[in-house]
Amino acid sequence: MYILIVAAVAPAVFLLYQVYKMDKIEKEPWPLLRKLLIFGAIACIPAAIVELILTAVFQNVLETGTLLFNFVAAFVVAALVEEGLKFIFLYAFTFKSPEFNYRFDGVIYAVFVSMGFAILENVLYVIQGGFSVAISRALLSLPLHATCGVYMGTYYGQQKVRSLTQPVSFGSVALACLPLSVLIHGFYDFCAFSAEEWPFFIYIFIAFVLVVFLITLKRLKKASREDRPVDDRPAQAPPMDRQTIELHPVEAQRTEAQPAEAQPPQDRAMKDILSASKEDLNNVL
Question: Is 51 left (phi over 0), alpha (psi -120 to 50) or beta?
Answer without folding.
Answer: alpha
